[in-house]
Amino acid sequence: MQNQNIPNKQAGQSKAAGGQTPGPYPSGGQPGRQQPKRKPLWASRRAKIIVGALLFLLALGVIVLAGALAGYQSGMQTRLGQQTQTANLTLQEQFDLGVKDLQEGRYEVARQRFEYIIAQDPAYPGVTEKLADAMAVLYATATPTALPATITPTPTRDLRPVEEMFAQAVSLVAGQQWTQAIDTLNALRKADPAYQVARVDGLMFLSLHQRGVDKIWKEGSLEGGIYDLALAARFGPLDVQANSARELARLYIIGSSFWEVHPEQAVFYFSQVAAAAPGLMDSSGITASERYYGALIQYGDLLAKNKDWCGAQAQYELALAIRADATLQEKLNNAIQGCTPSSPTPELSGTPTATIPGATVPPWTPTPTATQIVPGQPTDTPTPTQPLPSTPTDTQAVPPSPTPSETPPAPPEPTATFTSEAPPPAPAAYLPAPASSAMSLGFSLQPYWQQLLMLLNNLI
């Protein structure tokens, strides 16, 4: 009884304390269900530390990257600023030297310096006027004029419209608006032909020069560029750049006149243009390199049509060196096959010999024979001869001839048909040597013919 009252007493105390009655399961849970386990406190702190470290490293990387980018941009700006400052100093130095050359009478050197400055910076202040001054002295021509009998006072002209046109022309030249500048200068020349002739001519020369070069290299107007450069040459000599552009444009136009008509001439002209300026093109938009490629194929086709395979092979190989093409490769293979000579078929030549069915001829081996050697005379070379079945009989040796022959003369041609009265001819391989040769070797031919006659009788 005492033991049963103990739990009740504990329950009463629990109600008094919190108002809840604790059961056999914690937190009033039901039997059979387990409460989730709480993570240890150290695990949650560790995760927070790792996440914080990662965020810190990420922020640090962003800061470093931003600093590097800012430093790179600052360095590039500084470098560009230094390059611009250096270029400006160089142009300023050239301008000052040009002015000094102009003052000291070195007009040609001054002209070259001012043209260099315009090529680098057409808007450089004061350079166009100085170039016009230099050219005015270089290309000025004195025109004698008769003095008037009496000087008639004339009213002062209003030059404000002409001066405005001149200032506008200078501004257009500085802005590289060559066509508008040329039109303005022509209008100024019509309004007042005597207004600052040298400076107006200098501006006209510069505008025509630059517009002609731009037409050739940028616009593909080869004829227009050649015409502008020809007009510019009337005001002053052209430089190397202008002369080169004009010459290449001329070669391109000549080569185009032979296109698809005389491909050999087109190859000649376009090969020069493609080597110097492969990107040069006309109003059609076809570059010099493409023209050269097409002319090579056309020339190769013409040579192949005329059965000149070796020449066609050379043209196709040059075209393939520019650009590979399956059709062109097939043409090259055909040209190579036609150019390579085929080996001739050997033709059998010889005299037919008659053979006797069932007849056997004893084998023979060449045996040298001894000859008498005469002092002071050339010696005979042993000559392989056909052995005879019978034993050779001794014959009187004939002195060796001064010029011995190594091979016996050709035997007479045998015929395939023969009569029974005469013995058939022997095969060509076993024909006896001529009498003179046989006598010199000491052989007797009679037993050999007797054996052949006996063999023929047996066969018949």
What keyword list fits this structure?
460 residues, mainly alpha, 15 helices, disordered N terminus, Serine Threonine Protein Phosphatase 5, Tetratricopeptide repeat
Would you spell out the secondary-structure blueprint of this structure?
Layout: H1 2-18, H2 41-103, H3 107-120, H4 127-138, H5 160-174, H6 178-191, H7 197-219, H8 222-232, H9 240-257, H10 263-276, H11 288-305, H12 309-322, H13 326-339, H14 435-441, H15 446-459
Helix pairs in contact: 2-3, 2-4, 3-4, 4-7, 5-6, 5-7, 6-7, 7-8, 7-9, 8-9, 9-10, 10-11, 11-12, 12-13
What does it look like?
The structure is a single chain. By secondary structure, this protein is mainly α. Among the domains are: 86-124, no CATH class; 260-340, Alpha Horseshoe (Serine Threonine Protein Phosphatase 5, Tetratricopeptide repeat), CATH 1.25.40; 430-459, no CATH class. The chain contains 15 helices and no strands. Helix 4 (127-138) crosses helix 7 (197-219), helix 7 (197-219) packs across helix 9 (240-257) and helix 12 (309-322) runs antiparallel to helix 13 (326-339). It starts with a helix and ends with a helix. Residues 1-25, 141-150, 369-424 and 426-444 have low confidence and may be disordered.
Q: Compute the CA-based radius of gyration.
A: 57 Å
CATH architecture of the domain at 260-340: Alpha Horseshoe
**For the terminal residues, how far apart are their CA atoms?**
159 Å
The geometry reads as: flat
Low-confidence stretches: 1-25, 141-150, 369-424, 426-444
The count of helical stretches stands at: 15
Helix/sheet category:
mainly alpha
- Given this structure, which CATH class of the domain at 260-340 is correct? Mainly Alpha
CATH level 3 topology of the domain at 260-340: Serine Threonine Protein Phosphatase 5, Tetratricopeptide repeat
Q: What is the percent of helical residues?
A: 55-70%
